[in-house]
Amino acid sequence: MAKTQHIKNSESPLQITAKTSKWIVLILYFLITIFPILWLSISAFKTNFEIETSPFTLPAVWQFKNFANALQVSGLSRYFLNSALVAVFSTIINLLVTSLASFVIAREDFPFRKVFFTFSTAGVLVPIIAFMVPYYTLATSFGIYDTLLVLIFTYAAINTPISMFVVSSFMTSIPFELEDSAEIDGCSFWQRYSRIILPLAKPGLVTAGTFSFIYCWNEFIYALLLTSSESARTVQLAIRFFTSQFRTDYAGLYAAIVLTMIPTIVVYIFLHDKIISGMTAGAIKG
Amino acid sequence: MSSVHSQKREKKMKDTSKKRNKNMKYIILFLVPVTVLLMAYFVYPIVFVTILSFTEWNGIEPMTFIGGGNYTRLFQDSVFITSIKNNVIWALSAALLQTPLALVIALILAREVKGWKFFRTVYFLPNVISLVALAMLWKAMYNPEFGVVNSFLEIIGLGGLARNWLGELGSALPATIFSYQIYVGYFMVIILAGAMSIPKSLYEAAEIDGANIWQQEIHITLPALRGVLITAGTLAVAFALRQFETTFLMTAGGPANRTPVMGLYMYRQMAGFHYGRAAATGVMLIILGVIVITGLQRIFGKTDVAAESMQ
């Protein structure tokens, strides 16, 4: 309080300019970020005529039926289910696999421990998009091309490096005393993992799981490459087909796109602090 | 990790090493699943893509080894050259546009202006929405008939600038790159966390010495942020090089093959069953990434992103 008072009392022209330009930048960028999303969400409630003639006004009557139409025309409910199945199972597999390995890396000593950790997290820097051909041939040779299974495994693998990093750094921060006393009480190796460390690592698992869920829900390239039929179509692929499905019904198109954005936005509303701190933990020292 | 913690850890490690033989089979068992996933989805692909890039293969008939044939073909194809050029432009926009913009916003928010947490949350929001949805959204906004971009220009009296943004040769690439600038939030959040970890006492001392805000930012914040800035810049460039969705959905490489990027070029080769050429494109993409990122670190100083993200 005292500090702000001090600044206020001695405002120089330079500080006033700095203050004004600061708010101009913040608000301008705020508008650039939020306007497209807001514009789409509001347009989804308009009639097609309103969309074409008055792009900046609110709808005269909010057309909730656009959303019902969108669901009917696009068959979105099925793709929602597909995306949810992929995201949930992929995240479960990812967390199971990475928590096992992270437990060992964070709590045990074995030869090449550090090398293994580097190996398991180095994939963060690899441009996954360069693996189009091998991922495709993997899918066909295992006979899982065009199934939800192929997406579940592919996404679980792609998210492994980031989850390894998040989960193992969290498990490393758990005090060792807890485990020692558990061991004295006769806990087995498996029990130390499942009863002691795993419950304590829950915040780390939630962060990694959130990243994984958002990634799976939003992924497009490999859904495009590894599936072809409607039975394995995810919402992101569905968006691509909306343009032809809705032809001239822009209101329906916008409503459908808005529906696909809701799940990750809801997750973000509840977990934004966790997501942001998890993101930065990965990139900042200490 | 604090040093006390690591000392405890070392002690713990010594204790466990006695039990190593007993636990070794569990340790191996616990590492098997992750190793299988990483071998299948990271190690095998790198090896396979490299080998495949020296062959001709349509996915059905046996592969034939053709040496560097795919690479010579790539560099004779003007569309591939354009793709590399566009990828470099994308990477430059990440380094010279996205990162500085992220820095400016982070520096403002780091002073804990009113509502800084709210702004941070909003700026990061586009990162949780799919590239596909946002690409479709921007495509609608650029629509030449009733898109809001043209309407907005008319309202502010710049109606003369209105055009078919994604359809004209000159404006398509800048328009797609502009739409990508809403993804500043991720890098802003990284830089912001770095800036907020700078001890407040440094600024208080500088203020007593009569340093104004600009001087404080230039002499305290920027030097302290050097490593974080290189990390953020490297990530921004790496993401820009992998970019596929925005181009694929907004222009599909058009008009007249002005906007393709390497990811899109690779996808087209695959769609045409030229797996060897697609693999060669993948290898070139990895190599371009290594060149650009090591180049950046040569210029701005060395910080190993991988090592840094593993602290």
Task: Give a description of the structure.
The complex is a heterodimer of chains A (286) and B (311). By secondary structure, chain A is mainly alpha-helical. Chain A contains 15 helices and no strands. Chain A has helices at residues 2-9, 13-43, 48-53, 65-74, 76-107, 113-121, 132-141, 148-158, 160-172, 176-184, 189-200, 202-218, 221-226, 235-246, 250-283. In chain A, helix 9 runs antiparallel to helix 12 (202-218) and helix 14 runs antiparallel to helix 15 (250-283). The two termini of chain A are 30 Å apart. Chain B is mostly helical and 311 residues long. Helix content of chain B is 72%, strand content 1%. Chain B is built from 15 helices and two strands. Chain B has a two-stranded antiparallel ribbon with strand order 1-2.
Put the structure in a nutshell:
The complex is a heterodimer of chains A (286) and B (311). With 286 residues, chain A is mainly alpha-helical.
Q: Output the helix-strand order of chain B.
A: HHEEHHHHHHHHHHHHH
Shape of chain A: globular
Strand content of chain B: under 5%
User: What is the percentage of strand-forming residues of chain A?
Assistant: under 5%
- Average of pLDDT of chain A: 88
SSE pattern of chain A: HHHHHHHHHHHHHHH
- N-end to C-end Cα span of chain A: 30 Å
Q: What would you call the structural class of chain B?
A: mainly alpha
The global form of chain B is: globular
Care to count the β-strands of chain B? 2
Give the number of helices of chain B: 15
Radius of gyration of chain A: 24 Å
The radius of gyration computed from the alpha-carbon positions of chain B, rounded to a whole number of angstroms, is 24 Å
- Rounded to the nearest angstrom, the distance between the terminal CA atoms of chain B is 8 Å
Task: Name the average pLDDT of chain B.
Answer: 87
Instruction: Report the helical percentage of chain B.
Output: over 70%
Number of helices of chain A: 15
The assigned structural class of chain A equals mainly alpha
Low-confidence stretches of chain A: 1-5
